Amino acid sequence: MSTLAIFVLLYLAASIAIGLYAARRVKTSGDYTNAGRSLPLYVVIATVFATWFGSETVLGIPAKFVKDGLGGVIEDPFGASMCLVLVGLFFARKLYRMNLLTIGDYYRQRYSRTVEIIVSLCIVVSYLGWVSAQITALGLVFSVLSKGAISMPAGMCIGAAIVLVYTLFGGMWSVAMTDLFQMSIIGVGLLYIAYLVSGMAGGAQNVVAHAAAAGKFDFAPAVGTKEILAFTGAIVTMMFGSIPQQDVFQRVMSARSEKIGATGAISGGVLYFLFAFVPMFLAYSAYLIDPKMVSALLDTDAQMILPTLILDNTPVFAQVMFFGALLSAIMSTASGTLLAPSITLTENVLREYFPMNDRQLLLATRIVVVCFACVVTVFALLSQGTPIYDMVGNAYKVTLVTAFIPLVMGLYWKRASNQGALCAVLGGLASWLLMERFGGDSIWPPQLVGLLVSFTGMVLGSVLPQWLRAGPGRRAHDAGIAGSR
Length: 485
Known about the structure:
Helix 6 (103-110) packs antiparallel against helix 7 (113-145). The protein is globular. Helix content is 79%, strand content 0%. The chain has helices at 3-22, 29-34, 41-52, 55-68, 75-97, 103-110, 113-145, 152-200, 204-213, 225-241, 246-253, 258-275, 277-289, 291-299, 305-313, 316-353, 358-382, 388-393, 395-402, 404-412, 418-438, 446-463, 472-478. InterPro entries: Na/Glc_symporter_sf, Na/solute_symporter, Na/solute_symporter_CS, Sodium:Solute_Symporter.
């Protein structure tokens, strides 16, 4: 067994040990879901940062940057970081005060159980591609490290099992503690690799100057209606579609105060924006160091650019640092995105039909975590060949067209009604799906059409005569007695 493989195994063992140790704190479903609302600022920042810094940031974005420049990926570093900043500025405090267990609970309290169930199911579905992307990346890493001895499918199953072990028992406590450990590895590892690789490429200034001369920093769309709409749709999808996601919500709600939650979201967003450019710098450095290798991989498997660069051109210590950082990024995102939809499905869908006490809810959530892990692993196996970047990007379209408008207008527009929310959710979803199926020649991105229809549905549905009354959740909210279950 190689030295690199030994260190990777030790790292995986350490991550599992930290996750299982943190699981000792879980006594109730609240501990499992949001760490008992007790996390300090530095942990919240680490876990919010980990929300986004996953396989797409380390493998997918750098590959697209080398090929298409900043214009091909700007929606991720800018849109994702702006999402977190917006959460911290406009959503964190209001939602924290409502003492919610999940983001789905908001839709029940503000509107009705019908809206809660529909939106929650959409949120759960949106995670399939996201979690599958992390599982795919784990399979890629294990296959590379074993030099093909472990196949991609086998590596994906092994990776899913590792993440499942500590997420299953510790919930948000395990996610938070492993995130803190893994984000430390990412920070140290990537900065060290950037320093090493920049020297091989003639210095950081040379890399930046070469990329600028090649037009890689040009991100403004071409002056044309279709190009501007496509650019706007990509930015809006990442920025707004990510806000009503359970993983973002539970990280902010896990803070010990609303101020810490808001500050942690803003700080995590800024930190992500800065660090997201490090893998891009590494990938373009690879282009200067070994242009033939990069050109060949751009036509076959661009996600292999950074792993190939590190394995072929750096000493063992650098390889350990890189793959430690890569595994940290993938596992931190995978654990959170595995937990989030499982909690949403249990709390906001299953519990509506099968009443449970707190102990039964905790057990049911863990069972759903196992089931969801199996589903996303199968989905990942069936999606082999789909770029990681595309798998993640498509995830936010569902929540953009269904969940965003009812969330923001419910918080900031008093006239938003249950009828308006239903029109927004169903109208946004239907128009998006129809555009995806039949709007191939349209200049309008399907998700942008869905967002506009959702907004129109909310306004018209709320100002017209109310034929669809709110359920008991909304009436309780109006009476000022709504709270967490």
